[in-house]
Predict the structure.
Amino acid sequence: MNVLGISGTPRKNGNSDILLQHALRPFEEAGWEATLLRLRELTVKPCLACEHCTAHGSCALDDDMHLFYDAFRRCDALIVATPVYYRNVCAHLMAVMERHYGVREKRPLAGKPGGAIAVGRGSGGGQALTIDRIYTWMLSCGALCVPGELNGLTAVADEPGDVLRQEKRLRQARVLGENVMHVAERLRGT
């Protein structure tokens, strides 16, 4: 089975990326294949709203989005992580979410469980709103939103690596991963 991890942070060793890696560990320990796509290493342009995908069945833009289209198809579960910018997902992740439109008719994420991680500076920094936006996107794609201990996983951090000193958040990342994995396994009857 395959889990897709999407990291939206532009920072190397960003806090949302660290939590995503912790969330993916239960899958790896259970023998799953993990596909980790880090947006800081890729180029995904914003949607042009040109409707080329509607007319031709493929996106008119030539960039790394094809990696996501393939990963959406192949995955059995996904976890999306982002830093919070202005109470929203980062622009890199927003581009991926909007470009899913190009495969909306094929519904590659339909019925697949997913979890969300959002890390922002300060409490009340928009983390809950950001989790909601990720889960709303997942629902629009037909995916199943899976909670961690509460909803998705939120954390307060500023400098790269700050979450490494937050044992509770690292544990909650693992719980989120375990929950998503268990739902995926039940759906597949394993």
Q: What stands out?
A: Residues 2-188 form a domain with the Rossmann fold fold (CATH 3.40.50.360).
